[in-house]
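Archive entry. Fields below.
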Amino acid sequence: MADDPRPSRATAARLSLYLRSLEGWRRDGLVTTSSRDLAAALGIGAAQVRKDLSYLGRVGRRGVGYRVADVAGAIRAALGINREWSAVLVGAGNLARALVRYRGFSERGFRVVGLFDADARKIGQRVEGLIVEAVGDLGRRVKALGAELGIVAVPWEAAQEVGEALAATGVRGVLNFAPAVLRLPAGIAVVNVDLTIQLEQLAFQVQAARE
Amino acid sequence: MADDPRPSRATAARLSLYLRSLEGWRRDGLVTTSSRDLAAALGIGAAQVRKDLSYLGRVGRRGVGYRVADVAGAIRAALGINREWSAVLVGAGNLARALVRYRGFSERGFRVVGLFDADARKIGQRVEGLIVEAVGDLGRRVKALGAELGIVAVPWEAAQEVGEALAATGVRGVLNFAPAVLRLPAGIAVVNVDLTIQLEQLAFQVQAARE
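PREDICTED_STRUCTURE:
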């Protein structure tokens, strides 16, 4: 496993979580950290952390631990987020409006460059700096905008159709907020966001604290 | 670890993911499954799956595998989601409106029973079946509504204050959508939803496919 130069998806997911902790520690002024700190932050074993960090190349020094800034930078490079990514958003409803305004996206280099909807009443509306465009123009506009990612923020009934429309434009990845499983051609990465999972985890923690 | 009757948070997170796969398989008409199927669905080892499922008591039969419905039911019981949970939502902006309409919450037994905002212009507005109430009434209303969970859907600048207001009402857990770290009293469970993490994972997969 550790000989594979590319982290698995499970490792990539943990790298994102390490990065959140490291960013918090950096804001608090911490300069160095250890696999034990990261393990405690995620509630996993230190051996797993060391294995995960082995994908990052040389980021630690024996006895000194890891420099917070170095590990954060190496994780960004491994995840491919040490550069900007541009995305189009399909569905100009409440969720899309919230996402366009979501501070975290722009802070981490994800730019929403286009906003599309099938509803004629929404087309032409301004949302932050974007004008809602017709979903029929998606193919032409994705190319013009150079967008690499698509975000599906439509009701579940429309999600498969919108996913296919995005796949046809040449975007390389789709982030799906609709509670529906998208079946897209191989070669298109799909990540499903399930907003209920965290609510389930909260219920679990509340219940566990009561017992 | 396996002697501890209570799953860790990391195990609980995997239980939620197993449940998603099991629900999909059930919709597709599958009756039985195996630790190997679940391992493949999550991209982890079958030994880890078997260890996680050991928290559920007797759900498998030697040589027959697991019944999809039995494992799903046992996971719901372990997570504490084999019953309804009621939540109040603070912040009546676009994200809150999207969450109130989000099909996945009600499908899994999470009911939003109250909606609150500090903005006098929003108070009194109707969002689906709910009327936006004043955040100043939170304490009184949470008790009247019997809500156990609070959801923070305000801008990050207001998140800490709203989190403290929720904690003072007696809710047992807070789901935080604001990109801010909440510091709440011990005894209140807090789960932070970071909408950027999945976008990072998508970027990673797209980059990995290119290499």
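CURATOR_NOTE: The longest strand of chain B covers residues 110-117.
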